[in-house]
Amino acid sequence: MKENIILIGMPGAGKSTVGVVLAKKLGRGFVDSDLVIQERYGKLLHELIQENGVEGFWRIEEEVNASLSQKKCVIATGGSVIYGPKAMEHLRGIGTVVYLQLPCEEVAERLGDLDARGVTLKPGQTLKDLYRERTPLYEKYAHITITCSGKMLRQIVEETANAVARHVRRMQQEGEAK
Fold it and tell me: pTM higher than 0.85 for the full model?
């Protein structure tokens, strides 16, 4: 049964913040996959990116996310998780994937120093380039998209909880119809 809720989206979109509050609201566990990576490798994200390069980090991220086996959890992923097809198929298989969508300008305001945040930019790539590159991938893998612009945290959490409940009911009904 797909009983997890997986949050995807740009860095700064609020995946970890929304995830913690959503988990409390629904009485579920909470996992931040970036913290799982740091714990497993004993290094900060930006150190792993420096040592392994952007693509090397993506391989690490894909391997860790593809190995998650939580049950009844809210899982906040890193913004670049969508570059790992194996991880994304696994995550879609163990839960409902929710894209927290935020306009590029708001992402830039929230982020500040990109290197300190562990954002995987290729040489010469701007945040706007990254946003354009990732948006179609977030949309491809998401079961649900929640627009977060101009909304309070509790409103985003409420919308997410309701949308996931509707999605799960629909999937159960379709399963029963087969």
Answer: yes
